[in-house]
Amino acid sequence: MAQFFKAKPKTSALMPKKIQVTASTLDHLGAGVAQLDGKVLFVPGLLAGEVAEVKMTEDKKQYARAQLIKVQQASEQRCQPLCHYYGSCGGCDLQHLQIEAQRRYKQQVLTELFEKFSGIDVLPEIEVLSGEPVAYRRKARLATWFDKTSKRFFMGFRARESSKVVAVNECPVLAPALSALIKPLASSLAQLQGITSLGHVELIAADSGILVVLRVTKPLSDKDRQRLLALAQKLDCQLVLQGEDGAYDYLHGAQPFYRFTLASQPLTLHFNPGNFIQVNGGVNQLMIAKALEWLAPKTGEHILDLFCGMGNFSLPIAATGAKVTGVEGVPSLVEQAQTNAIAAGLSNAEFYCADLNGDLRGQPWLTQVDKLLLDPSRAGAWELLACLPKLQPASLVYVSCNPANLARDSVRLVEQGYQLDKLVLLDMFPQTHHIEAMALFSHK
């Protein structure tokens, strides 16, 4: 039998160009949630309770997505975005929501994650640790792109869900000293002969000065190096080139290590450009103080700090007189933590290197401790928590950059006899939907 081909109509033809919707709430990514023909419709930029004109961009069986065209009835919580790049730059996604409303929204998200994944029936009241809503980032990575057709150079942030680079001259969430560097730095980089060899640019505001790390895929010419040297002198910043092999070439005024101070102790932590540091220094201070409050370390106690990095928690805990063992999977961070402890005169802190997501049998530190602190990566600590019976801490503090996995890992903690006593929202990234959290568990 002959079969005749009939072309299916294009998806765009099936969707109306513009429709009116009303958002009921926000999803976990900060997008407005509405209903359309019995399915969920996600609209970035739309707030709960708002009526808006939107344009359909995606229509699936279970859900749909749309682009916000015009808000027709605005929420009282809507505010004017503080950055004129907002909407094109992909760095922030909640600047249209008042800051206090942002934090209430994040509290609700954290509550919903625990209700969905933890199995804990009654949650403690969620405290919020927050700092300044702007000018809070002491570290940022900017992308670069040279358009060979138009001969234009772009330096800025990626657009949302795109590889496109949105050129910016300033950024209000960066430390002012870093924001002020963007425009003159981009202008000078555009003049380099080796412009096609430029990768990302990292800006860091340390107590020891402003640091610019420039990634290059090929060695720069002597002329380009001299141009960069003159620029660093003019901008009064330290400039480091990072080669394709990851090695650092300290070009101007730079030193192998930089520093920031933990004011609560005070303690000085040294780091190099490749080390991880918390980008929100103010909330980091509050987070450390809260961990010390919850752990209440005492002289003679043994406290284990897993995923310890370069000693962000280990050193403040050791400064109280407790014995601290820190474990980290990155050798350079372990070495830096040891160096920081020696510089601080803390002989009661020792550090080990181990893959905390791997086989830990035979590890010398895997023994009974009084208390435990965990600060894992986004993957969480599900596998590691199988070792908890060997450690037997009376209490533990879990710091998480992915609260969904913190809630998931709570299941294993409850199974092993622990109860959730405290839960805190860490507003590390104001103006974005991203949330972090920390929790205190004690053994029943």
From TrEMBL:
<feature type="binding site">
    <location>
        <position position="375"/>
    </location>
    <ligand>
        <name>S-adenosyl-L-methionine</name>
    </ligand>
</feature>
<dbReference type="GO" id="GO:0008168">
    <property type="term" value="F:methyltransferase activity"/>
</dbReference>
<keyword id="KW-0411">Iron-sulfur</keyword>
<dbReference type="Pfam" id="PF05958">
    <property type="entry name" value="tRNA_U5-meth_tr"/>
</dbReference>
<dbReference type="Pfam" id="PF01938">
    <property type="entry name" value="TRAM"/>
</dbReference>
<dbReference type="InterPro" id="IPR030390">
    <property type="entry name" value="MeTrfase_TrmA_AS"/>
</dbReference>
<dbReference type="InterPro" id="IPR002792">
    <property type="entry name" value="TRAM_dom"/>
</dbReference>
<comment type="similarity">
    <text>Belongs to the class I-like SAM-binding methyltransferase superfamily. RNA M5U methyltransferase family. RlmD subfamily.</text>
</comment>
<feature type="active site">
    <location>
        <position position="401"/>
    </location>
</feature>
<feature type="binding site">
    <location>
        <position position="307"/>
    </location>
    <ligand>
        <name>S-adenosyl-L-methionine</name>
    </ligand>
</feature>
<feature type="binding site">
    <location>
        <position position="355"/>
    </location>
    <ligand>
        <name>S-adenosyl-L-methionine</name>
    </ligand>
</feature>
<feature type="active site" description="Nucleophile">
    <location>
        <position position="401"/>
    </location>
</feature>
<keyword id="KW-0698">rRNA processing</keyword>
<feature type="binding site">
    <location>
        <position position="92"/>
    </location>
    <ligand>
        <name>[4Fe-4S] cluster</name>
    </ligand>
</feature>
<feature type="binding site">
    <location>
        <position position="171"/>
    </location>
    <ligand>
        <name>[4Fe-4S] cluster</name>
    </ligand>
</feature>
<keyword id="KW-0408">Iron</keyword>
<dbReference type="InterPro" id="IPR012340">
    <property type="entry name" value="NA-bd_OB-fold"/>
</dbReference>
<dbReference type="InterPro" id="IPR001566">
    <property type="entry name" value="23S_rRNA_MeTrfase_RlmD"/>
</dbReference>
<keyword id="KW-0489">Methyltransferase</keyword>
<dbReference type="GO" id="GO:0032259">
    <property type="term" value="P:methylation"/>
</dbReference>
<dbReference type="InterPro" id="IPR010280">
    <property type="entry name" value="U5_MeTrfase_fam"/>
</dbReference>
<protein>
    <recommendedName>
        <fullName>23S rRNA (uracil(1939)-C(5))-methyltransferase RlmD</fullName>
        <ecNumber>2.1.1.190</ecNumber>
    </recommendedName>
</protein>
<keyword id="KW-0808">Transferase</keyword>
<feature type="binding site">
    <location>
        <position position="312"/>
    </location>
    <ligand>
        <name>S-adenosyl-L-methionine</name>
    </ligand>
</feature>
<dbReference type="InterPro" id="IPR029063">
    <property type="entry name" value="SAM-dependent_MTases_sf"/>
</dbReference>
<keyword id="KW-0004">4Fe-4S</keyword>
<feature type="binding site">
    <location>
        <position position="278"/>
    </location>
    <ligand>
        <name>S-adenosyl-L-methionine</name>
    </ligand>
</feature>
<comment type="function">
    <text>Catalyzes the formation of 5-methyl-uridine at position 1939 (m5U1939) in 23S rRNA.</text>
</comment>
<feature type="binding site">
    <location>
        <position position="83"/>
    </location>
    <ligand>
        <name>[4Fe-4S] cluster</name>
    </ligand>
</feature>
<feature type="binding site">
    <location>
        <position position="328"/>
    </location>
    <ligand>
        <name>S-adenosyl-L-methionine</name>
    </ligand>
</feature>
<feature type="binding site">
    <location>
        <position position="89"/>
    </location>
    <ligand>
        <name>[4Fe-4S] cluster</name>
    </ligand>
</feature>
<keyword id="KW-0479">Metal-binding</keyword>
<keyword id="KW-0949">S-adenosyl-L-methionine</keyword>
<dbReference type="InterPro" id="IPR030391">
    <property type="entry name" value="MeTrfase_TrmA_CS"/>
</dbReference>
<feature type="domain" description="TRAM">
    <location>
        <begin position="12"/>
        <end position="70"/>
    </location>
</feature>
